[in-house]
Structure formats: C-alpha cells, structure tokens
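To fix ideas, we reproduce below one chain and its tokenised fold.
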Amino acid sequence: MPITTILIANRGEIACRIQRTARALGLRTTAVYHFADRAAPHVAAADAQVELLADAPTAAYLDVHQLLAAARATGADAVHPGYGFLAENARFAAAVEAAGLTFIGPQPEVIDLMGDKIRAREFAVQHGVPVAPSCTQTGTLDEFVVAASALGFPLLIKAAAGGGGKGMSIVRAAGELRECAQQSAAAATRYFADGRIYAERYVERPRHIEVQVLGDGRGRLVHLFERECSVQRRFQKIIEETPAPNLPSAQRDRICEAAVNLAGAAKYRNVGTVEFILAPDGEFYFLEMNTRLQVEHPVTETVTGFDLVAAQIRIANGEDLWLTQDQVRQRGHAIECRICAEQPEHDFRPATGNIKRLRIPHADGVRFDSGITEGLAVGAAFDSMLAKLVCHGVDRDAAIARMRQALHDLVLLGVDTNVGYLARIFEHPAFVAGQLHTGFVVEHAASLRAAPLAPRERAAILLAAALATDEFRRMAFDIPEPHASIGHWRN
C-alpha cells in the first residue's frame, strides 16, 4: 500500500527537512520527542506528536520499542530514520519491517554489510573497488601491532563499526602504535559496543570525495555526482560542495563509476553515499558507504534539481528507478556549511545556551535548513549542529561570494557558534583556490584564528547587539506607568 503517514525517528533539522517534503507530497507525519525537545520546531510542525520517555534525551530516540509503539498509536505506515541515531542500525530497520511498516532506507542486510567497515572493505575488494593497504585485528594486540607495522607509517586506526571520527587516530611512529590501538579499541567499545579495530595506510594530505547514489533495490542504480568534503575538524565535516574543485573529469568519472559498481553489486535500495579518499598522486581508495541520507544532501539537490527525500519515499513505495544516468545533470555550483554551537578558539568545544536572536538570510540561491527558533535552549545532549547554510551560484566563485554575504547576514545570538570561523574560511586564499585536503583546518589554524577585538570595538558590537533586542530596548527606553501617562512633566 502507498505510504500515507511517516513517523520520523529523529529530531531537529533533519526532522523538519523530512516534514517539508512530506507536506509537499500530501503525506502526514508523526514527530517523536523527549521532554527536553518539547518546544522544538519539529514537534509543532508534525500532524501528530508522541513523547518518548527516558532519563537521558539520547536514550529516548534510541528506544525501538517506543518508536514502534508511537507508529502504531498514530497510524503511521512508514518510518524515516533521518541520519544519526538509528539511521544505520540494521536491527532497527528489520524491526520496522517485522512490524509491518515500510522502512524508508536500504535493506537491513545491506545496512549490516556496509555498517561493518571490515566486511565492507572486503566486499569492495571483491568487486574491484580499490582500498588502501590495511590489516584487521583478528588475534591478540601483539599480532595486530606486528601486522600493522608491516604496512608502514603513518597509519590510521579505525573502529570496525565506527563513524563520525569516533575511535579513529593517526599513528606516525611505531612507538605510538600500541597505545593508539588500545585507545581506539576502548573508544570503539564505548561508542559502538564493538571493540574491533583495523589499521590502514594513512594518506598524507588526502581529499575526501563522496558520491551520491540512488537505487531501487532491483539492480537499477545511478549516481548523482560527487561532493567534496575535505574541510573537516576532528574528522567531522564542516563544509561540503559540488562539483569538487580542481578534479579532472576523467578522475571524477572513475570515482563515480566505482561508487556505482559497489552499490550495484549490493543491489542497493534507496539513497546512499560511497566515500573515498583521494591521494595527491591521483589514486583513490574506498573509505566507507553510508546507508542513509547524508547531512550534506542539499548541495546535491541544489545542483541536480532532485528532492532526495521525495526520491526516498518513491523508492520505499516500491517504484522502479525512473532515471537513467544520462538524465542526471549538474547546474552551477553549490556549497554547504554546518552552523554549529561550538567554540572554534577552544578546539571546537561544544557550546550551550539559549537562542536569543535569529535572523535568517533570504536571497536568491540561499537555503537555510534548521530545526531552531528564537527562545530554544541548546543543550549538550545532542550533536552541536544547529543548521545548514547552502548557497548556489553559476560557478564556484559565485557560490563563495553568495556564502560570504549569507554568513554576514545571518544573526544567531545567545550561544557561541562557528559562524565567524566559517566566514574566515571562505575568505582564505587556499580555500578560494580550491587547495583542499582533510588537514586544511589544522594546516591553516593560525591564519583562521580570530583577531582579538579592541575594547572599543567589542563594546560597540555588544551595544549594537543589545539595541537589536526588543527586550533590551523596552528595558532601556520604555517609560513605566504611571509616568508614561503623566507625560513629559516629572515631580
């Protein structure tokens, strides 16, 4: 039966994003929320709301039993996991299907395959997709140290079930290997309840290139071109764009072809992303496959004109793929930056507070995806990303210029953010020239640091911010009763 009501097993920005497409398609949505999120926009925007009970906010969104009960209670016939939380949890996808609901995502067995980084790499090798030299911990730590050392240094230690940079470390000398392996295994156990790790040859100054794919699960599959995701902090992306700058067309074609071959071999269903490391010498290696909608999907939507959430729903409804590869075209250039509640000057430490003032930039070619409003509390329980700012132009220079203006026009007060830091990146000569690699933030740390404000300049900025706030103006300038009624005369 066609989908009529979608339970969104997520919160914040991505929940609002899914709701927007669902409304456009005439579908109903159910929002779930923890008490801490009761005032969040995604709750008010849904057709039905169900509170999830848990002491910890994150635990609420991971409670499969409560999520399925919420779907039954509100008549939902499909579940969209968004990204994060249970989005790449094969057991959750299987539980959704076992409950007679439609899971808007890949097959559980494919999620399971690609979610295990070791199995995914083996699958890639079997189907001719290049991977970096590597070894897996299958025995004792001593055996792993010997095998990893034989690969040569530097090395990258990763968690087999990992993601988001958790359990990842760079090893540059043999003396560091044992300790880094132990730390990675401990982090992998803590974050993913799976202590398996592996080592791969670390590519110096690599680029992070990923390919958006779309398949119907019956062998028909296309790519929607690549995205450049090299500007990262702590192994997490903060800027993404498409097309990737300074990437020769022949190289682009090879990378996209490899992504299609891998996803096609898995008979992939729904949207997914195949990620690669691109070495300075032009060689590229499979990194992982994310079996979900990506945070950075809007840049692909902007240049191709496709609504990827709508595509997800159509495929989940059982439609055959309606596209051929030659029907996919790119128009112009798009860049996304992640607006995060954090302090770049303190190693991007997450920040908390209340959003006192929010003014969103409105202009042609500017898109602002968020799940925030004025007055909303920003806590420490969830990821620090608040919103995504996406700018489109006829070419990369135009997109950068539009992003600079949009960051200038964005007002977000009450919590520390990385807005100023992002603005400095878009002014940096190396970024403008497209000289990107995953160590960009570290390499240019000194030149990206904010210049200290002079006391008079700081005072002027604080005064301007205060004067822009209605509450401050009322306190400072409104005359209370009965004096306001008396007029100008005072006793």
Remarks:
- DSSP finds 20 helices and 23 strands in the chain.
